[in-house]
Amino acid sequence: MALEPALEQFFNTYQRLNRDNLDLLGGIYSDDIRFSDPAHSLKGLPALRDYFAELYANVEQIRFDFSAPRISNDQVFVQWVMRLRHPRLNRGGEIEVPGISCLHFAENGLVDDHRDYFDLGLLLYEQLPLLGPLVRAVKRRFSA
């Protein structure tokens, strides 16, 4: 199976995705999708839809910039930068979080396994008014 068309559809769907069109997920993910990221691990398209509904509920703006996809058989590794605005994080300013996804495509061209890797602290903890400075100070100490 040539993955390029399925991968292009995956990227395009993520560019269009918002809280009002989460049904688009069914066009890129299999019914028995296994999804994991640093905060969650879940199985099944309904569970994934619910997770995205929760994630997108208060997001004012979100976009993904994908780059450097690497295809190996039925698996794709792709780098991305997520840019989002949330009223309760970073005083409503834009947050940039780099990450990488490992995607496995089934024979039908749908993703049946999706694993995301990113710094959860950068996305969440560092953006909170009281906790953010403490987390950044700890990170600086470990990198010195």
Structural notes for this entry:
The chain has 144 residues and is an alpha+beta fold. It has a single domain, classed as Nuclear Transport Factor 2, Chain: A (Roll), CATH 3.10.450. The protein has 4 helices and 6 strands; from the N terminus they run αββαββββαα. The chain has a 6-stranded mixed sheet. A hairpin with an 8-residue loop joins strand 4 and strand 5. The longest helix has 13 residues. The protein is globular and about 45 Å long. InterPro entries: NTF2-like_dom_sf, SnoaL-like. This is Nuclear transport factor 2 family protein.
Name a few traits of the molecule.
144 residues, alpha+beta, 28% helix, SnoaL-like, Nuclear Transport Factor 2, Chain: A
Question: How many structural domains does the protein architecture include?
Answer: 1
Beta-strand residue fraction: 35-45%
Question: Which residues sit in consecutive blocks of at least 5 with pLDDT less than 50?
Answer: none
Give the structural class: alpha+beta
Q: From the coordinates shown, what is the CATH architecture?
A: Roll
Predict the CATH topology.
Nuclear Transport Factor 2, Chain: A
Largest sheet: 6 strands, mixed
Task: Please describe the topology of this protein.
Blueprint: H1 4-16, E1 29-36, E2 41-43, H2 45-56, E3 61-72, E4 75-85, E5 94-105, E6 111-118, H3 120-123, H4 132-143
Parallel strand pairs: 1-6
Antiparallel strand pairs: 1-2, 3-4, 4-5, 5-6
Protein name: Nuclear transport factor 2 family protein
Organism: Pelovirga terrestris
InterPro entries: NTF2-like_dom_sf, SnoaL-like
